[in-house]
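Human: We require from you a protein record containing the residue sequence and its fold in token form, and nothing else.

Assistant:
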Amino acid sequence: MDITIHNAELCEKNGSRAWLLAMEVQQPDGTTVRTAGVVPVEAMESRTAEYGLDDFTEAEVLELIIREPYAKLDPASPHSLLNASTLDEAREAYLSAIAASKGGGQLRTRGKGQRRPMIAPGEPLKAAGTSATVLVDSDLDDPVETICAHTLRRPEYVDAWRTIVNRDRRELRRARQTSDDTAILRVAERIKRTEEIG
């Protein structure tokens, strides 16, 4: 499945920052659909930590995140991040699901210096129905390069995310072994809050 990013805007609303993407996504039947994508600024660090993607470039991690909504990622799967017996197993399942949805497709951009063919500044925000403030707009620059230039993968933050994931995995395993439903729900709620951030 080919995905083309036409524009990226770093937006802020109520203290939260995320990249809002104007994209075209090729459907299985060959048609192309215009859509918006949202990538929280913390997502690059959190995915790097969760799946051990330290050896991936920022652009490669970004592509994985953009493709997640189109992949068959089942959180109840025995191979999911919190259910797999090892992080290597979770990483393999994650990368396989993304690869399966990708097929032979590529992540493309309109390219540096090219005009946006379909959107005006702020249009993705209007389409998404939000009143966020635009902090950075890729404008004539390559959207992927813009995101990578303004989104860091700081080692100390990656390590902090990794600590959280490992703690949650340990606590969830312990709660399941003792059939402690209250502990399972507590960990699940904390994981949900963490996922909303990253």
